[in-house]
Amino acid sequence: MSPTAASAVLIPGPAGDIDTLVDLPRGEVRGIALVGHPHPLFGGANTNKVAQTLARTFVQLGYAALRPNFRGVGKSAGSHDHGQGESDDMLAVLAWARGQFDPAGTLPVYLGGFSFGAYVQAKVAARLKAAGTPARRLVLVGTASGHVEGARHYETDAVAPDTIVIHGSADETVPLANVFAWAEPLELPVVVVPGADHFFHRRLHILKDIIVQAWKD
């Protein structure tokens, strides 16, 4: 299903405006997908190529895909909040999307994230589950977990066993061993792309193929 051109909107959030790109399928909207971008203090934004690939893949599957800029990025208000405020903002974007595309509240919700964005989406999934409105499925790429480049540390939330977790074997930012250490106690499979670095240079098409081939809704 081909997408329309992405539109930029400012969505009201807890800390002010949330600068968001919205991609829509040309046909019926069959679900709502939220996409999280990499770390905002290291150049991450909603225009990141991996985040864009996730959004385009969700649109191909028939979903409205929303890519908010995290706090302090682009026109988004506020400042970096280490995943807490960013999770609040994701839920605000979801509430806005419900009003736009799903006033009856019946469409499934999907979460996708890359790097820090994957860490945030694991938090969002936990909050949606606790509220009794779980996401249908997650796609996490280059998931920030454990000690990573830049002396940062992430305690990544547990996720559902059908989560699609994709990581590069040559990831120089988040070592593959970190993701294995997080996934093993969860009995969570990890799809490893041989030779892929953190940003999946020259391998973005592989990301899309993995997701589409593994998809069920």
TrEMBL record:
All copies of domain Xaa-Pro dipeptidyl-peptidase-like, residue ranges: 46-127
Listed GO MF terms: hydrolase activity
Signal peptide: none
Record protein name field: Xaa-Pro dipeptidyl-peptidase-like domain-containing protein
Originating species: Oryzomicrobium terrae
